[in-house]
Amino acid sequence: MGMLMNHLLSLFDDDDSLLQPMLLHGFSGLLHLVFLFVILVSWVCNMFRTDDDSDHSHKQWLVKNITSSLPYYRHAFFSSLLLALLNIVLCILDKFYWYTNWSDLMILVLFDSVSKALSWLAIAVYMYAQVPNLLDVKYPLLIRVWWCFFFSISCYCLVLDYVYYHTSQPLPLQFVMSDALYVVIGFFLCFVGCCRKNERDENGNSQEPLLDADFSRLSNGEECKKSGKAETGAETVTPYASASIFSILTFSWIGSLVALGYRKPLDLEDVPQVASVDSVKGAFPLLRDKLGYGRGGGSSVTTLKLAKALFYAMWKEILLTAFFAMINTVASYVGPYLIDTFVQYLNGPRDLKEGYFLVFAFVVSKLIECLTQRHWFFKVQQIGTRGKAALIALIYHKGLTLSCQSKQGNTSGEIINIMTVDAERIGVFGWYMHDLWLVILQVGLAMAILYKNLGLASIATLVTTVIVMLVNIPLGKLQENFQTRLMKSKDHRMKATSEILKNMRILKLQGWEMRFLSKIVDLRNIEAGWLKKFVYTNSIVTFVFWGTPTFVAVVTFCACMFLGIPLESGKVLSALATFRILQEPIYNLPDTISVMVQTKVSLDRIASFLCLEDLQTDIIEMFERGSSNIAVEIVSGIFSWDVCSPNPTLKDINLRVSHGMRVAVCGMVGSGKSSLLSCILGEVPKISGVIKMSGTKAYVAQTPWIQSGTIVDNILFGKEMDRVWYEKVLEACCLKPDLEILSFGDQTVIGERGINLSGGQKQRIQIARALYQDADIYLFDDPFSAVDAHTGSKLFKECLLGLLESKTVIYVTHQVEFLPAADLILVMKDGRITQSGKYVKLLDSGNDFIELVGAHKTALSALDSVDAGPASKSSYLGENSSTGSFEASEQTVDVQSAEPPDEIVGSKGQLVNEEEREKGRVGFLVYWKYVTTAYRGALIPVILLSQVLFQVLQIGSNYWMAWATPVSRSVAAPVKVSTLIIVYVALAIGSSFCILGRSLSLAIAGYKTATLLFYKMHACIFRAPMSFFDSTPSGRIINRASTDQSTIDLDMPNQVGTFAFSVIQLLGIIAVMSQVAWQVFLIFVPVIAICIWLQQYYLPSARELARLVGVRQAPVIQHFSETISGSTTIRSFDQESRFRETNMKLIDGSSRPKFHSFSVREWLTFRLDILSSLTFAFSLVFLISVPHGTIDPSIAGLAVTYGLNLNQLQAWVIWSLCNLENKIISVERMFQYTSIPSEPPLILESNRPADHWPLYGKVDVYNLQVRYAPHMPLVLRGLTCTFEGGRKTGIVGRTGSGKSTLIQTIFRIVEPAAGTISIDGTNICLIGLHDLRSRLSIIPQDPTMFEGTLRSNLDPLGDYTDEQIWEVLNKCQLGDEASKKEGKLDSTVSENGENWSVGQRQLVCLGRVLLKKSKVLVLDEATASVDTTTDNMIQQTLREHFSDSTVLTIAHRITSVLDSDMVLVLSNGLLEEYDSPTKLLMNKTSSFAKLVAEYSVRSNSSLEITGG
Predict the structure, then answer these.
(1) 763 contacts 783 by C-beta, under 8 angstroms
(2) Is the terminal CB of the chain with fewer CB neighbours within 10 Å at N or C?
(3) Please, what sign has the CA dihedral across residues 284, 288, 289, 294?
(4) Helix or strand or coil: residue 1462?
(5) How many other CB atoms are there within 10 angstroms of residue 200's CB atom?
(6) Burial class of 924 by CB neighbour count within 10 A (0 to 12, 13 to 18, 19+)
(7) Residues of the chain above pLDDT 90, percent
């Protein structure tokens, strides 16, 4: 190397012309002009070349695919643009440097720069417009040759620069830097030119499979679109998994997704799967193993153990982020360390070598800082997403194994809150996990720099900093307290919200929705109280810590004054830069403590949940199938839902069931029938005894549990399709006629909880699900009560006596006619099996059984006058065998849903569709509505003015310190030290008060906005029509009420404020730097333009990914909610593993857009950081290049001090804008639910009915026409009838006849299209909904109880006294049960009334109407869930207490209708028959007579059966 250097120097000494800059620049400019001419000629030739357009679409496909397949096409294109831009800047610089002293060399340099700028601009345009059209797999030869030549001449120029440097004749700095950049870019272009694209790209950075799939899908039409969709979304793994080091460092691997999002709105299928290590299948087992969960350690999970497990599951990534954080911190202090040296350099004699070194050190440290920060932030978000996914899976696994007692103590709403809010908090903690130890490192580095500059005064800085940090201890405890209370109150609100949404129909029918809304508002007010304390405390903390850096600076400078340490501008600026960097950890410390507190609270809550009691896994002893003839055996069993209760639920249970037996279980309401089935399933805790079982089992619950999804998916329930068996099951369950009615057949999507199915349909789908499993043991919990008489008998015959003839069946029933077919009948009373045996034996010896059968005979006594011969039965079955199964469907559908099954899915498609999401840019109106919601935006000017004043005072104080301190000791100070400190303190105090005003105003505006949006959204939801709830899964509403509301409560004010404040800060930095050197705008303007273009290029992808994140969260919540409510059914079918698998897929579906959302954000920020560093480098080069004395060194140092933050702040502005647009989507989603169409007014003051209305209860229906939507056909087609006041009317009819539609129209759940309904002469459509519904009463088929007390369930509005409530309880046979409970009327009712039997819940519903005692009462299968004795009691109670009321009855028990004064038979929305039962039965051809005859024959024949 030395010999080569000597040779080069000898050439220079010989004055070789080849080493003369003049010749070199002239030669370079000429060559660029020649190349420019050649490329223009080539371009023109290509334009006039004839081209065969016969296969234009194929050519377009090739163009796009070859563009994407050319190696590093976009990199080469942008490199050409960068060279053009660089030379334009050099032209401008040359002109400004030499405008007074032009020479031949300068003219040639300018000529060279202009030629290069034009040539590279032409290359960029040529590559964009012409290269793709050449249909080649490599770049044109002309381009590749030029790249190689350019690299050669650039290397030659750089060598020349080196030679001149060693001869002490250095060229201007811009020559050296530009030549170095030319070499780097030239080398890259040569590398690109030598690459050739193979079939499968080997570089892995820009040509990912996703990009190829996207291009083919976009260019090849619909066919490619369909094939690409599945490949891209479901099979393609994120390019990150296989990206090269360069691609990972620069985030180029995500560029293809950004490009696709720029061309079209992204959908989920466009987003690749996360890598296996980030998927829940990879993360969850690791966390579970580290936690020891599932190996008997679940009950011992502590907060510390959970935190350690999370750390050990991701320790490699956590340590890597710690390394990035440490390097980033060290690099960030290089700038402050060098500022004093830089100021002294500008003030003294300049050595270009030293100047170059300073610039190099500044720029390299900035680049290292940018690179490490980006990958630090990327990794912590990756860790957070992975940890959140694993925690959700862990919570889900726990939810599947919770015991019944644990579920009563932790409702589904609370568990969902743990899954959504707490897991999210822990995911966010990754941002802050290194902050505590980083503070120590940052303070240590700061102290070292300060000690170097200020000596012993740095001790004052350290003491002040420590004091400030110690202040965080009480503040942190205060925030922890507020955060804990806030989360608990949010839990209570979400629990109530979840329960109310599930039961919205009954609330509207009873007119209680506004009362329950006020309950939600009261809970929110409690939550808002803690929220207010939290945000106000946060604002005070913000004030303290924003003022802390200035306070530290004041103390430090005062210490310098007292210690006599001279203050020089360079040292002061270095100290100020250090304080500015130290500001971030000190400022973030309260946030860090707050997040740590929140994380601790969330970890506590999750650990507590994981410690809840599980189901006993050793309750049932399973033995091999075939090893014994025994299917189920219980010996001396004692079971209790509450193991602490002195009164067990089941006592002295002894039972032996052989394979193939049919066992019937009967008894009064609350006798323990359902609990017996539950203990066989292993759901009831065992106190003593033995349970043995052999074979697989299937279970049909009394309350149907239906999953969201298609009908066929619900029936198959995870099994493969066996078409022959499937058809047999459909036939046996009478489902085929229903599927023929539905537009999509068995592909019809069922709404949440089967909302668009009738009670009978849901029950028959449940039975079909059990039958399809082909299990060995079947447990039926009274499934036939929800269907009509004919369908019930057919189901019993086809299922229990048909397909299940050889199976073991244990069925609970209230219908005595199904008992004779049993091989063994168990009679239960007070939790004991009081009698057992066959039907005839029990008739001879059993008192309890005789009581049940006697009640049944009493109920049939009304049929004695009916002559029901075999012909009637045959005629009825012959006519109706194909439609009889609909009876249950129609009789309940209209109270179960706002739309009957045959009308739900018409021309509009499925009832439940994908969740709506906006596409494209978030409208300005959303931002405007948000910022003006509170006080019409009056606080916005105050907030902005406070921040502007703060920025002005901050800059003013720093400017004052730079101007008022001497550059060196040899220069006299402009002012006294005391004056210097006093002015600085005054400015600091002023800026602190500005921050106080800003933080308080922002907290007030944010809190008020969140409160108003909450009230507005919930008011709209509660006033929405039932059709909204039928078509909207509650998970979507809960997601807005929970996750989105939390974002608006805690995040949105800070996001809006951060963006506004960062813009103001950036403008302040620009102002400072431009005052020193306005030429900085020459580079700053194009860089800002590129930043804005990058931001616009990035935003479409980021926006849609953020929306997908919100949309994909709801399915996880909904599936979890369904799993919790159906956990018994899931466990009974041994389907836990399949549901866990589904949960994992949904979690990964939520993680996919989230992972790529923060990836594209880092992609953007990395590029913005690089551009900002370029601006900073240009500023430094300019400052060391200007002649000595042109710029005050102190002010130049101030510019550098601010310039150190330029890259972060410039990127922060764009990043905060993008983050704001991501977060504003939560506001957008809430605004969606503030514009839901509302029901008619609750009260019309101008037309309120009298207080005693209705007085008689006469209901007049005239020409009533009803349809469920404007595009749907009429369901009621001109119905006219009168229900006389005080009369009992039974309503019957076939599927689709309109029975329940009539009931819903009376309650105005559905509004009439034409005609009128009048009650006592008052048109119900002319009065308010609340006035109408509160004066009517209904007992629905599905009995509903709410969490609270017995009193609040009977009297939610608090209108009645205790005496009245006890009187009603005695009337409905619940008085004894209530008096046994510890709290009497205040005894606890768990969520959905789970601690009460279904029959008892129905009696509570009866108690409500007895309290209300309206003149119009509707019974919709009110006695479906009770035994015959209780049914007779209810009917007797109603006859006694509603003798003067109008009663409309829909019932499956014919005896309930026979007792009516009138019977209305509907057919196809028209009145078919309407007369007294006696007259209708006299006409043997009437539809009603045929129905009664069939029921009579079936019931009487069952009593005559003498055995199974």
Answers:
(1) yes
(2) N
(3) negative
(4) strand
(5) 9
(6) exposed
(7) 7
pLDDT at 907: 36
Centre a 10 Å sphere on the Cβ of residue 1210 and count the other Cβ atoms it contains.
Answer: 25
User: What is the distance between the alpha carbons of residues 990 and 1382, in angstroms, rounded to a whole number?
Assistant: 64
What's the CA gap between 1472 and 1453, in Å, rounded?
Answer: 21
pLDDT of residue 487: 83
Contacts of 99 (CB under 8 A, 6+ apart): none
- Distance CA(241)–CA(181), nearest Å, equals 32
Q: Which of 176-180, 617-621, 874-878, 986-990 has the lowest mean pLDDT?
A: 874-878
Percentage helix, strand, coil, to 5, in the chain? 65, 10, 25
Contact criterion met (CB below 8 Å) for 49 and 134 = no
- The structure tokens 């830069």 sit at 577
Average pLDDT for 1400-1425: 81
What local confidence, expressed as pLDDT, does residue 865 receive? 47
Query: In 10 A of CB 376, how many CB atoms?
Result: 23
Alpha-carbon gap, residue 898 to 902, rounded angstroms: 12
The tokens describing 108, both together, are 């040639």
Q: Are 1156 and 1103 in contact (CB under 8 A)?
A: no
Give the contacts of 1358 (CB within 8 A, at least 6 positions apart): none
Please answer whether residues 1410 and 1368 qualify as being in contact, where contact means their C-beta atoms are separated by less than 8 angstroms: yes
Contact 1315, 1263 (CB under 8 A): yes
3-state secondary structure of 651: strand
DSSP for 1084-1148 reads: HHHHHHHHHHHHHHHHHHHHHHHHHHHHHHHHHHHHHHHHHHTHHHHHHTT-HHHHHHHHHHHHH
Encoded amino acid at 309, one letter: A
Report the alpha-carbon distance of residue 186 to residue 176 in Å, rounded. 15
Q: How confident is the model at residue 884 (pLDDT cuts 50, 70, 90)?
A: very low
Using the 8-state DSSP alphabet, how is residue 718 labeled? T
| Amino acid, res. 812 | V
Q: How many residues does the chain have?
A: 1508
Determine how β-strand 630-639 pairs with β-strand 650-658.
antiparallel
Contacts 24+ apart (CB under 8 A), 97-103: 97/172, 97/1185
Nearest to 173 by CA among 34, 310, 433, 353: 353
Question: What is the number of H-type helices and E-type strands within the chain?
Answer: 57, 24
d(CA 613, CA 523): 28
Q: Taking the C-alpha atoms of 828, 829, 835 and 839 in order, what is their torsion angle to the nearest 10 degrees?
A: -60
Mean of pLDDT values over 395-417: 79
Angle between helices 2-13 and 141-166 (to 10 degrees): 80
Sign of CA dihedral 904, 909, 911, 917: negative
Tell me the two tokens of residue 1278.
């001109």
pLDDT band at 1458 (very low <50, low <70, confident <90, very high): confident
**Three-state SS letters, 617-634:** CCCEEECCCCCCCEEEEE
What tokens were used for 562? 């007292």
Residue 1475 CB coordination number (10 Å): 16
Residue 793: what are its φ and ψ, rounded to 5°? -65, -35
132: closest CA among 175, 92, 74, 81? 74
* DSSP-derived secondary structure for 79-117: HHHHHHHHHHHHHHHHHHHHTT---HHHHHHHHHHHHHH
- Sequence-ordered list of residues with C-beta below 8 angstroms from that of 864, at least 6 positions apart, any chain: none
pLDDT at 1428 (0 to 100): 65
- The residue type at 976: K
**Contact status, residue 346 vs residue 573, Cβ threshold 8 Å:** no
Cα dihedral 786, 787, 793, 795 sign: negative
Q: Strands 808-812 and 777-781: what pairing?
A: parallel
Q: What is the pLDDT of residues 936-994, one digit of tens each?
A: 888 889 999 998 998 898 888 878 887 778 776 666 667 787 888 888 888 888 888 88
More confident residue, 216 or 262: 262
| Cα–Cα distance, 730 to 1433 (Å, whole number) | 36
Express each pLDDT in 1014-1029 by its tens digit. Answer: 999 999 999 999 888 8
Instruction: Record the tokens describing residue 403, joined without a space.
Output: 């015991």
